[in-house]
Fold:
Amino acid sequence: MQEYLITIVFLPLFLLTVSIHEYSHGWMAQKLGDNTAKERGRLTLNPLKHISLWLTIFLPATLILITNGKFAVAALKPVPINPMLFRNPKRGLTYVGIAGPLSNFFMALVFSSILRILPYSETGFIGGTRIVLGMAVLANFILGMFNLMPVPPLDGSRILAGLVPNKATRIILRLDKYGVIFIITLLGALALTTDGGVFSVIRVPLKYIWKFYGLRGLEFDNLTMGTG
Structure:
């Protein structure tokens, strides 16, 4: 029963996480001179405005099948931007790309700060609250790290596009529409070639960041038990 309650409480935090992530892209683009996201109704914290059939539904469902339920990640459709409206298109791509992951690491800081001041308990209301907050911290870590991969249409590809020569930038941006195929291929390959799948690859840096934020390693182990 407690597991269902934890999931119900965690879900709004997760939706808030992904919505702030997408909002951050639109907010940064607007600051740089591009109002495309606002004009298309995407400069909002409403998650329903950001849902993608491929990234929000098809991607996690496929990963659950590929990894036998050990790993899944979902994303929302990228906020529309027009780099040509940026005051500096190349630099703007990098700034807009990095805004999303930075929002995740900031939210992880907020949730971890609350977690650090709560009394330690593994049971009762406090114990359940710590689990929910721990899951929120992990979700933000994973979303931030995942999106930093330089694979279209993830944020890492936008950051990369702002750093490479113009010809390479155009190629990267054209590959956005094939992004889901790239992501499933990459994560599927990791699931098939590593013991424990993709989580076994990110577990070590994930735990390092967890401890860097001043959190208990034991809680990390308890939260990630059976995932790698």
Observations:
- The two ends are 25 Å apart (CA to CA).
- The chain has one domain: 2-223.
- Residues 2-223 form one domain.
- The longest helix spans residues 2-31.
